[in-house]
């Protein structure tokens, strides 16, 4: 089988821990070839996001079309979109990729807390891209924002929230439970009338910058290589857990450090 080509559509993180930079490293580490369309430039490090320079929506579209006109796309990961115009431009582009699986990570804020998307963009996301997604991958705050409800505080709350997200139209939802307390980090995958809990031992570390970007990109890379979505998500979750476990080998910044995307080569 040919090595899959994965397109990530997201913002740039010059510190390398999140966004496009994290996506491309995660895609390569999971056995695929990464391509990118950049939606925004940021000035950020492990401590804060200083500013955001949005790429014009028309040029985001130009990037995607240029890739599609020449290169086979086997899966798409969508991350930070920032504004409604960009959401609509991306939605218009992906309509031509009817059979390409889309992993949508509804990025609302950076790990440091900085808002990365406006309210109008959230609504546009719900109306256009969420129903087109093969997999929606929100964390608990993002899921609460998408639905306009309080953030869940238990597994039971997570199950109800995941079902509500599924009713927004994606084929499947991976609701990430890392914001809950406990010895295990528990994610819930729901879709097609069934649900699966995926657990990993919680790692005590501050090196969590870009975990959401990394996971969604790894899933996109695994989907063309696995027999089922559950297998793809499981493989990606194992990869991210290893990246967190080995993050202490890095010495990057003085805030929320990145995970070790290249840990498999150790």
Explained architecture:
The protein is an alpha/beta fold. Helix content is 35%, strand content 20%. The protein has one domain: Ribokinase (UDP-N-acetylmuramoyl-L-alanine:D-glutamate ligase, 3-Layer(aba) Sandwich), CATH 3.40.1190.20. A hairpin with a 2-residue loop joins strand 9 (184-191) and strand 10 (194-201).
Architecture blueprint of SSEs:
Blueprint: E1 5-10, H1 19-29, E2 33-38, E3 40-44, E4 49-54, H2 57-68, E5 75-78, H3 84-94, E6 102-104, H4 119-129, E7 135-136, H5 140-147, H6 155-166, E8 172-176, E9 184-191, E10 194-201, H7 211-222, H8 229-245
Parallel strand pairs: 1-2, 1-5, 5-6, 6-7, 7-8
Antiparallel strand pairs: 3-4, 8-9, 9-10
Apparent shape: globular
**What profile does the largest beta sheet have?**
8 strands, mixed
The helix-strand sequence is EHEEEHEHEHEHHEEEHH
> What is the CATH topology classification name?
UDP-N-acetylmuramoyl-L-alanine:D-glutamate ligase
How would you classify the helix and strand content by structural class? alpha/beta
Q: Identify low-pLDDT runs.
A: none
The radius of gyration over CA amounts to 17 Å
How many domain units? Answer: 1
Instruction: Order the strands across the largest sheet as they lie in space.
Output: 2-1-5-6-7-8-9-10
């Amino acid at each position: 089988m040919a090595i899959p080509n994965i397109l990530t559509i997201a913002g740039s993180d010059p510190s390398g821990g999140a966004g496009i930079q994290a996506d491309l490293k995660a895609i390569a580490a999971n056995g695929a070839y990464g391509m990118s369309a950049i939606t925004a430039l940021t000035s950020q490090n492990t401590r804060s996001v200083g500013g955001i320079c949005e790429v014009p929506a028309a040029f985001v579209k130009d990037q995607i079309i240029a890739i599609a006109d020449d290169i086979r796309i086997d899966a798409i990961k969508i991350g930070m979109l920032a504004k409604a115009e960009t959401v609509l431009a991306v939605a218009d582009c992906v309509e031509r990729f009817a059979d390409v699986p889309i992993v949508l990570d509804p990025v609302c804020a950076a790990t440091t807390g900085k808002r990365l998307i406006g309210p109008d963009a959230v609504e546009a996301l719900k109306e256009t891209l969420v129903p087109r997604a093969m997999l929606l991958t929100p964390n608990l705050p993002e899921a609460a924002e998408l639905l306009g409800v309080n953030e869940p505080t238990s597994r039971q709350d997570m199950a109800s929230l995941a079902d509500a997200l599924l009713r927004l139209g994606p084929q499947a939802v991976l609701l990430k439970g890392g914001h809950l307390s406990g010895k295990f980090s528990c994610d819930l995958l729901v879709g097609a009338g069934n649900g699966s809990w995926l657990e990993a031992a919680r790692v005590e570390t501050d090196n969590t910058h870009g975990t959401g970007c990394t996971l969604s990109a790894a899933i996109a890379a695994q989907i063309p290589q696995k027999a089922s979505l559950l297998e793809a998500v499981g493989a990606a979750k194992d990869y991210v857990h290893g990246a967190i476990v080995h993050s202490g080998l890095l010495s990057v910044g003085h805030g929320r450090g990145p995970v070790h995307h290249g840990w498999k080569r150790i």
